[in-house]
Write a structure and sequence with these properties.
Structural class: mainly alpha
CATH class: Mainly Alpha
Number of strands: 0
CATH architecture: Orthogonal Bundle
Largest sheet: none
CATH topology: ABC transporter involved in vitamin B12 uptake, BtuC
CATH superfamily: ABC transporter involved in vitamin B12 uptake, BtuC
Strand content: under 5%
Order of helices and strands: HHHHHHHHHHHH
Helix content: over 70%
Number of helices: 12
Radius of gyration: 19 Å
Number of domains: 1
Length: about 290
């Protein structure tokens, strides 16, 4: 018997979109924890614009979208990190220069070639219901790869998140971890761009993680909660967009924002809201990370 939940599943485009929104929600929620706690939310927003520039360059040069956009995003992230390390250049200035220049390259090429209009709109605003099996395979692969990276580098990422200056003392290769993290961010944004679009990627990276931070002081639980919030919002959001006939990406982000608002108000009223902007990693967890790193 068909019903409100099963009716949309009769359409292949909806099944593929549902799987994509679930994976992208989980992926962005998982990586977003590190982005939020490392105060890199602006980088997530900026990189999405940089990747857009790379996507246009790849299209014009007839290069595979994922290869061209991925490499552009990765090198943009490395360039931002390198510029931000220079004492005379503020991190936000470095981000602004690199990402806006990349986005401008994309816009300039679009105005010159005038052959990218439809793809331009999909890249900016997302097109979940237009996800192809190839897009779905890429999203699944990136989700597994980023998940493996977080598991394998869990302790090192803890130090890089909370004690980056102390990390080298315990044998953490800051350069390698930073480079791998930049690659993970670029891959996440490239894999998500066709689903939620350039304009909404930053929200899917930041909102679930921020909501999870309001609910727990445990880093491990925060990762799990953020992943679940992102995945759940992806699934519920695409159903709502189908029923309401509105943009899927926008619906997912608005649902995440609504969940954040409810959690924020609930924790504020109960006076249990943690000061997530300044609270450091508990000393015990940091000591355990140090012990595991030897």
């Amino acid at each position: 018997m068909m019903g409100p939940l099963t009716d949309p599943l009769a359409y292949e485009f909806f099944r593929q979109g549902l799987a994509a929104s679930l994976l992208v929600g989980a992926l962005c929620g998982m990586l977003g924890v590190y982005i939020v706690l490392r105060r890199m939310s602006y980088i997530g927003h900026g990189l999405s614009h940089a990747v857009f520039g790379g996507a246009v360059v790849a299209y014009v040069a007839s290069i595979d979208f994922y290869v061209g956009a991925g490499l552009w995003g990765f090198f943009s992230a490395l360039l931002i990190n390198a510029a931000a390390r220079r004492r005379r250049i503020a991190a936000d200035a470095a981000i602004g220069i690199v990402t806006t220049a990349s986005f401008a390259v994309g816009v300039a090429l679009i105005s010159k070639t005038r052959s990218f209009t439809r793809d331009f709109e999909a890249a900016l605003f997302g097109n979940i219901l237009g996800v192809t099996p190839t897009d779905l395979a890429v999203v699944a692969s990136v989700t597994l790869a980023v998940g493996a990276f977080i598991v394998l580098f869990y302790k090192r990422l803890l130090f890089m998140t909370f004690d980056p200056e102390v990390a080298p003392i315990y044998g953490v290769n800051v350069g390698v971890v930073d480079s791998l993290f930049a690659l993970a961010m670029a891959a996440t944004i490239v894999a998500s761009i066709n689903v939620v679009g350039v304009t909404l990627i930053a929200a899917t990276l930041v909102i679930p993680a921020t909501t999870a931070r309001l609910l727990t002081d445990s880093f491990a639980r925060m990762v799990v909660l953020s992943t679940l919030i992102g995945a759940s919002a992806g699934v519920v959001g695409i159903y709502l967009s189908y029923w309401l006939d509105v943009s899927s990406g926008a619906t997912i982000v608005l649902l995440e924002a609504a969940v954040f608002t409810v959690v924020f108000l609930a924790t504020a009223i109960s006076r249990r809201r943690p000061d997530w902007t300044d609270r450091p990693l508990p000393a015990l967890a940091r000591d355990r990370a140090a012990d595991d790193l030897g």
